[in-house]
Amino acid sequence: MMTRHRCLPLSGRRATAGFSLVIALILLLAMTIIGVTTIRSTVIEQRLANATLDRNLAFQAAEAALRVGESVATIHARTAPALSQLAADGTCDRTVQSNCADGMCQLHDPDCPLRSSDLTVTAWATASTVNLGPLMGQHPQYLVEFLGANFDCAPPDPTSPNDPDNNCKRYRITARAQPANNDRATVMLEVLFATE
Known about the structure:
The protein has one domain. It contains 2 helices and 6 strands. About 40% of the residues lie in helices and about 20% in strands. A hairpin with a 2-residue loop joins strand 1 (about 100) and strand 2 (about 105).
């Protein structure tokens, strides 16, 4: 018995080889798109992680500067003479407003804008005692503003019509920290600090 082999004509073989080439190119294109997308996603996630790390470090540095400012306020509360609250008359007294040195600003005029709102004010003090790791750029800064000395020391007592306990001092402490990478936002924190 004789077997016959069927051979495809030459044109059929070329058509099959051309079809395989097209399929291979389409698969290569799909793999390239998937690879590029994966790389882009990884780069974006890395940038987000770096930004989060920088922000957390700056936040912690600003928190540490707040603690330094609180210690400055505590020392001021113990050593400064008793001062009365400034009367609000609707005009800003710039002589009182500019009375700042080494991060401590004397009695704040309530009619003036906050000193901490002016980022260029020279009263900002550097919290050089804050231990920074190699990932932080410069030391954080703080600004302590004395708000007055006649605040209530405790919540008012409804049973006592005349509450004489209103000689406690209040301070506004603002701290700021800049990450080492200067294209990141500065972190600013503010707290009202009460002393007796």
